[in-house]
Amino acid sequence: MMLLLRELKIMLRSPAGAIQSLMFAVLVITLFPLAITPDPDQLEPLGIGLIWVVMLLSCLLAADKSLASDYADGSLEQMVLSHYPLWWVCLVKSMAHWVSCALPLLLMAPVLGAMLAMTSENIVWLMASLVLGIPDFKFVLYLGRHADGWIESKQCVAANLDRPISGANLDPWYPVGDDWGRGLLWLHVGRLAVSIACDLALCDGHSRKNSG
Amino acid sequence: MWRWFHQWGSPKFFYHRSGALIPVLALASGLILGAGVFWGLLIAPADYQQGESVRIMYVHVPAAILAQSSYAMMAVMALISLIWRLKIADAAVQAVAPIGACITLLALATGSLWGKPMWGTYWVWDARLTSTLILFFLFAGVLALRNAAGQSQTAGRAASVLAVIGLINLPIIKYSVDWWFTLHQPASFTLTEAPAMPFSMWGPLLVMVVGFYCWFFLTWLIRLRHEIVRREVRSDWVQQMMKQ
């Protein structure tokens, strides 16, 4: 609980990171109508895929910050060594990161959707898929970061690439309302798989922590 | 003239003299905005085509006008700080950027709320809307550059250069409705001609515009005075003021 408060306090004191990823998302989305066409009929089918990719990139932009400074000043090490279980630390850090980075992006998504001429029904589906999908980014990222491996974030992009693919796979289905459900189901399955992988990695981290 | 310029360019002189303006501006903006809101929202007639939604105009138009003129002001200040290295001009750029960004966002938001009932969509990528969005990005860019490298002079200079270059966007916004085919109506309010709408509508609009300007100068002055004290905190006059 204290950890959550600490993370949120850090976030409130320097909102620049969250604002930066938000501005990045808006700027990138703005470039597409300027570069391709301002025609709503042509923009509309692109909307979901574009927003998914932008969300992924913005999350990555912010994710590095949330861990890097803690790693640099050694507080991350203290957290790992503290008497709290490692999964708890991870969960709290991901929750704080979700509030500081994903929540503003999620709130921005309908605005971006409206700017890309998406219908309000599709925006609702987009939001649902993002709510389900974005935690996956986090989990995969923290998987890479926390499993004592310190994978570079470029590799995390590669690991994350399956998310926009399954997210944007909703794309061909979306005129048929029912099939959205199937896409969301797959996202959910994907998330379960990722969290199981996360658990395994954490167990691994635990055993290493205990043995080392 | 030059004496006046140098006097007001000195942070100390500016800080001591500008304090008296704050209550005047606060009173004026409170009264004028209150009167304008009352007149615009309660007394002014609804439009025969647009109905009650025309009242968004009383916020949208002043915000849009103010957004552009605050950018022009920021760019002039940036130019002054680049040419004469006037410390106070740099502080003024920093003080005006967040206000301008907020006002531009307000103009965009009210515009899209107005666009939904009128055009059937919150947003279209037409020239006027896109160039105003770019105005917002310019404000945001100036802010980001300022914050990027802390308080260093390089950051201030980079932000000033961006502000001056972005000036080219203002005529684009202004003439976008004439140059391109766009949904946005051309200006209904010019300095030279009598407005096409009845007095009962442009009256409150004018009051709101004046009120917005008063509010802008009020917030700008408050921010600028804070900024001056923050920058001059090591100087004698601020130290003396702190002791009192």
Describe the structure.
The complex is a heterodimer of chains A (212) and B (244). Chain A is mainly alpha-helical. Chain A has one domain. Chain A is built from 11 helices and no strands. Chain A is elongated, with a radius of gyration of 18 Å. Chain B has helices spanning 2-9, 11-18, 21-43, 57-84, 87-119, 127-148, 153-165, 169-179, 199-231, 236-243. Chain B has one domain. With 244 residues, chain B is mainly α. Helices cover 77% and strands 0% of the residues of chain B. In chain B, helix 2 crosses helix 9 (199-231), helix 4 runs antiparallel to helix 5 (87-119) and helix 4 (57-84) packs across helix 7 (153-165). Chain B is built from 10 helices and no strands. The two termini of chain B are 34 Å apart.
Quick recap of the structure?
The complex is a heterodimer of chains A (212) and B (244). Chain A is mainly alpha-helical and 212 residues long. Chain A is built from 11 helices and no strands.
What is the total number of structural domains of chain A? 1
Largest sheet of chain B: none
Number of domains of chain B: 1
Report the strand count of chain B: 0
User: How many helices of chain B in DSSP terms?
Assistant: 10
* N- to C-terminal distance of chain A: 27 Å
Any low-confidence stretches of chain A, pLDDT <50, length ≥5?
147-178
Strand percent estimate of chain A: under 5%
Radius of gyration of chain B (CA) equals: 20 Å
What shape does the CA trace of chain B take? globular
Number of helices of chain A: 11
Helix content of chain B: over 70%
Q: Categorize the overall geometry of chain A.
A: elongated
Average residue pLDDT of chain A: 67
Task: Report strand % of chain B.
Answer: under 5%
Got a strand count of chain A? Answer: 0
Poorly predicted regions of chain B: none
Multimeric state of these chains? heterodimer
Mean pLDDT of chain B: 85
Structural class of chain B: mainly alpha
